[in-house]
Amino acid sequence: MKTIRKSQQTDCLTIYNLICDMEAQTLPYETFEEIYSRQLENDCYICLVYEINGEVIGCINLRMEYQLHHAGRICEIMELAVRSDRRSQGIGRCLFNAAYNEAKAQGCLQIEVCCNQLRLRTHRFYEVCGMHNFHYKFSLSLTQTGDYDNKLGR
């Protein structure tokens, strides 16, 4: 049976593994768990999981906030991850559609997502979902000096 539901504290380790796989790096679990727990308690965040027969195989993490430059509430996809052996099976699209419906129900004006320039396949996914690339995102590390090459797994 396939289900999309709001995540719970017991989903933390599975979501951690999904996101580490997506980022191609091992994140510090204790810090991840602390942030995840805080987000569960904050109404601005909603994390949805996709399960098959009780096993979580994908997640989408959303932040909804009021932004001055939109004069309204915006939904941002913070993370969308599907287990590597289950990609290209429509699971990401199901999660995106669930996020779209949740954002509309919460009164959001639009959905936004930031995606690394190197993730070309992911760009195509979002375009197929109807999204448009109208923005640039700039970043400056506050903890790293020197090497500013764009690479995944950082």
UniProtKB/TrEMBL annotation:
Record's keyword annotation contains Acyltransferase: yes
Pfam families found in the cross-reference section: Acetyltransf_1
Enzyme class per UniProt: transferase
Domain of life: Bacteria
The N-acetyltransferase domain, residue ranges: 2-147
Tagged with keyword Acyltransferase: yes
Gene Ontology MF terms in the entry: acyltransferase activity
Keyword list, A-Z: Acyltransferase, Transferase
Assigned EC number: 2.3.1.-
Name under which the protein is recorded: GNAT family N-acetyltransferase
